[in-house]
Write a structure and sequence with these properties.
By secondary structure, the chain is an alpha+beta fold. It has 3 helices and 6 strands.
Length: about 150
Protein backbone atom coordinates (compact mmCIF):
# COMPACT_ATOMS: atom_id res chain seq x y z
CA UNK A 1 0.00 0.00 0.00
CA UNK A 2 1.22 3.45 -0.76
CA UNK A 3 0.35 6.15 1.71
CA UNK A 4 -2.15 8.95 1.47
CA UNK A 5 -0.97 11.87 -0.65
CA UNK A 6 -2.09 14.83 1.45
CA UNK A 7 0.79 17.29 1.22
CA UNK A 8 3.15 18.72 -1.37
CA UNK A 9 5.44 21.75 -1.42
CA UNK A 10 7.81 23.43 -3.85
CA UNK A 11 11.33 23.78 -2.45
CA UNK A 12 12.07 27.49 -1.88
CA UNK A 13 15.54 28.94 -2.29
CA UNK A 14 15.69 29.60 1.48
CA UNK A 15 15.73 25.82 2.02
CA UNK A 16 18.87 25.29 -0.07
CA UNK A 17 22.50 25.36 0.99
CA UNK A 18 25.60 26.85 -0.63
CA UNK A 19 25.79 23.86 -2.98
CA UNK A 20 22.25 24.32 -4.30
CA UNK A 21 20.84 21.27 -2.51
CA UNK A 22 18.01 21.24 -0.02
CA UNK A 23 19.58 21.49 3.45
CA UNK A 24 19.06 18.44 5.67
CA UNK A 25 17.09 20.35 8.30
CA UNK A 26 14.44 21.32 5.78
CA UNK A 27 13.76 17.67 5.00
CA UNK A 28 12.51 17.51 8.60
CA UNK A 29 10.56 20.79 8.27
CA UNK A 30 8.79 19.46 5.18
CA UNK A 31 8.05 16.12 6.89
CA UNK A 32 6.68 17.97 9.91
CA UNK A 33 4.35 19.94 7.64
CA UNK A 34 3.23 16.64 6.09
CA UNK A 35 2.52 15.34 9.61
CA UNK A 36 0.28 18.34 10.32
CA UNK A 37 -1.79 17.50 7.21
CA UNK A 38 -1.87 13.81 8.13
CA UNK A 39 -3.03 14.61 11.67
CA UNK A 40 -5.80 16.85 10.35
CA UNK A 41 -6.92 14.01 8.06
CA UNK A 42 -7.00 11.64 11.05
CA UNK A 43 -9.05 14.07 13.12
CA UNK A 44 -6.23 14.93 15.58
CA UNK A 45 -5.18 18.27 14.10
CA UNK A 46 -5.46 21.80 15.42
CA UNK A 47 -9.28 21.75 15.69
CA UNK A 48 -8.98 18.60 17.83
CA UNK A 49 -6.47 20.35 20.09
CA UNK A 50 -8.79 23.36 20.42
CA UNK A 51 -11.65 21.03 21.42
CA UNK A 52 -9.84 18.56 23.69
CA UNK A 53 -6.48 20.03 24.69
CA UNK A 54 -4.78 16.90 23.31
CA UNK A 55 -2.22 16.92 20.51
CA UNK A 56 0.09 14.43 18.85
CA UNK A 57 3.61 15.31 20.06
CA UNK A 58 6.72 13.91 18.38
CA UNK A 59 9.16 12.37 20.85
CA UNK A 60 11.53 10.55 18.47
CA UNK A 61 12.17 10.54 14.74
CA UNK A 62 14.32 8.89 12.12
CA UNK A 63 15.13 10.28 8.66
CA UNK A 64 16.75 8.52 5.74
CA UNK A 65 18.21 10.91 3.15
CA UNK A 66 18.09 8.98 -0.11
CA UNK A 67 18.44 11.47 -2.97
CA UNK A 68 19.28 15.11 -3.60
CA UNK A 69 16.59 17.75 -3.88
CA UNK A 70 17.01 21.07 -5.71
CA UNK A 71 15.32 24.48 -5.43
CA UNK A 72 12.01 24.61 -7.30
CA UNK A 73 11.37 20.87 -7.26
CA UNK A 74 8.00 19.77 -5.90
CA UNK A 75 8.08 17.42 -2.92
CA UNK A 76 5.14 15.02 -2.63
CA UNK A 77 4.51 13.10 0.57
CA UNK A 78 2.82 9.76 1.08
CA UNK A 79 1.75 9.49 4.72
CA UNK A 80 0.83 6.41 6.73
CA UNK A 81 0.70 4.98 10.23
CA UNK A 82 3.47 2.46 10.94
CA UNK A 83 1.94 1.26 14.22
CA UNK A 84 -0.12 2.49 17.13
CA UNK A 85 -1.56 1.67 20.52
CA UNK A 86 -4.01 3.58 22.71
CA UNK A 87 -1.56 6.40 23.52
CA UNK A 88 1.07 6.35 20.74
CA UNK A 89 1.32 6.36 16.98
CA UNK A 90 4.25 6.14 14.60
CA UNK A 91 3.73 8.33 11.55
CA UNK A 92 5.61 7.46 8.38
CA UNK A 93 6.21 9.57 5.29
CA UNK A 94 7.80 8.87 1.93
CA UNK A 95 9.09 12.05 0.26
CA UNK A 96 9.19 11.93 -3.54
CA UNK A 97 10.19 14.19 -6.37
CA UNK A 98 8.46 12.82 -9.44
CA UNK A 99 9.15 9.06 -9.27
CA UNK A 100 12.29 9.38 -7.11
CA UNK A 101 12.10 8.51 -3.43
CA UNK A 102 14.25 11.22 -1.83
CA UNK A 103 13.67 10.47 1.86
CA UNK A 104 11.69 8.46 4.37
CA UNK A 105 10.61 9.64 7.80
CA UNK A 106 9.34 7.98 10.95
CA UNK A 107 8.04 9.88 13.96
CA UNK A 108 6.98 8.34 17.27
CA UNK A 109 4.16 10.52 18.59
CA UNK A 110 2.35 10.63 21.93
CA UNK A 111 -1.27 11.64 22.48
CA UNK A 112 -0.43 14.38 24.95
CA UNK A 113 -2.27 16.99 27.03
CA UNK A 114 -0.20 19.75 28.68
CA UNK A 115 -2.08 19.44 31.99
CA UNK A 116 -3.07 15.76 32.00
CA UNK A 117 -0.02 14.22 30.33
CA UNK A 118 -0.24 11.24 27.99
CA UNK A 119 -3.75 9.88 27.53
CA UNK A 120 -5.67 7.46 25.34
CA UNK A 121 -6.99 8.35 21.91
CA UNK A 122 -10.65 7.87 21.09
CA UNK A 123 -11.87 4.67 19.45
CA UNK A 124 -12.69 6.76 16.37
CA UNK A 125 -9.10 7.99 16.01
CA UNK A 126 -7.72 4.48 16.63
CA UNK A 127 -10.00 3.13 13.90
CA UNK A 128 -8.76 5.79 11.46
CA UNK A 129 -5.14 4.92 12.30
CA UNK A 130 -5.86 1.27 11.51
CA UNK A 131 -7.15 2.20 8.04
CA UNK A 132 -3.87 3.92 7.12
CA UNK A 133 -1.52 1.22 8.43
CA UNK A 134 -0.04 -0.79 5.54
CA UNK A 135 0.34 -4.54 5.86
CA UNK A 136 3.07 -5.53 5.53
CA UNK A 137 4.95 -2.47 6.75
CA UNK A 138 7.47 -0.95 4.34
CA UNK A 139 10.97 -2.44 4.54
CA UNK A 140 12.38 0.89 5.78
CA UNK A 141 10.12 1.03 8.85
CA UNK A 142 11.73 0.46 12.22
CA UNK A 143 15.33 0.96 11.19
CA UNK A 144 17.90 2.56 13.45
CA UNK A 145 21.31 4.12 13.10
CA UNK A 146 24.11 1.73 14.08
CA UNK A 147 27.32 0.15 12.88
CA UNK A 148 26.78 -3.40 11.74
CA UNK A 149 28.70 -5.96 13.75
CA UNK A 150 31.32 -7.81 11.76
CA UNK A 151 30.92 -11.56 11.74
Amino acid sequence: MSGLELYSVEVPEAWTDHYGHMNEGYYVVAASDASWEFQAHLGVGTAYFDETGFAMMTVESHVRYLDEVQKGETLRFESMCLGHDARRAIFGHVMRVDDRICATFEAMTLHYHQEQGVGPMSDEVLAKLATVTPIPLPDWAGRSVAFRKKS
